[in-house]
Amino acid sequence: MYCGYCGRLIRRCACGAPESDIRRFLARAGRQYAPLLQQSPPKWAVPPQIKRRERATLQRHYREWFRRLASDGGERCANCGAGEKLVLDHVIPIAKGGLSQLKNLQLLCAECNRIKGKLMIDCREFKQPE
Q1: pTM for the full model?
Q2: Which long-range contacts (CB under 8 A, 24 or more apart) does 25-28 make?
Q3: How far apart are CA 90 and CA 51, in angstroms?
Q4: d(CA 58, CA 53)
Q5: Average pLDDT over residues 31-40
Q6: E runs forming strands in 1-130
Q7: Is 111 helix (H, G, I), strand (E, B) or coil?
Q8: How far is CA 22 from CA 16, 49, 65, 70, 91, in A?
Q9: 129 pLDDT more than 60
Q10: What is the architecture, at CATH level 2, of domain 2-125?
Q11: In which band, very low, low, confident or very high, does the pLDDT at 95 lie, cut at 50, 70 and 90?
């Protein structure tokens, strides 16, 4: 079994540690950590040319996708609800095989995006704080 947040084997996962990034990230939204298990590991070792292509795609469509996500979900962080310094974030990071497509993007504030890093967390399914 693998951790659904970091992609590591459960026995090597540190997401449950009291000071882990996942706990800090969820605490910003007032949510509690709960283990998330998956059967297969994420895709590792994405070739550099694919990473380059996905980043170029994101840069090309950034403004359009930002406006679309802001109009659909409001101009707020999908995790903590902040309305400042918003950026597009990949739910499944490019480094773990995620694609630069609208269905794999969410709006996060800069702080939540920094804490989330390469974790695989979809905040769009959570209700934003009022």
Answers
A1: 0.84
A2: 25/79, 25/112, 25/115, 25/116, 25/119, 25/121, 28/79, 28/80, 28/111, 28/112, 28/115
A3: 12
A4: 9
A5: 88
A6: 2-3, 37-38, 86-90, 105-109
A7: helix
A8: 8, 29, 26, 24, 14
A9: no
A10: Orthogonal Bundle (1.10)
A11: confident
Average pLDDT, the chain: 89
> Cα(59)–Cα(48) distance, rounded to whole angstroms?
16
Residues 6+ positions from 50 with CB-CB distance below 8 Å: 94
pLDDT over threshold 90, residue 114: yes
Give the amino acid at 95. A
Task: State which amino acid sits at residue 92.
Answer: I
Mean pLDDT over 24-40 rounds to 89
Residue-level length of the chain: 130
In the block, tokens 């989330």 appear at 116
Distance in angstroms (rounded) separating the CA atoms of residues 3 and 118: 13
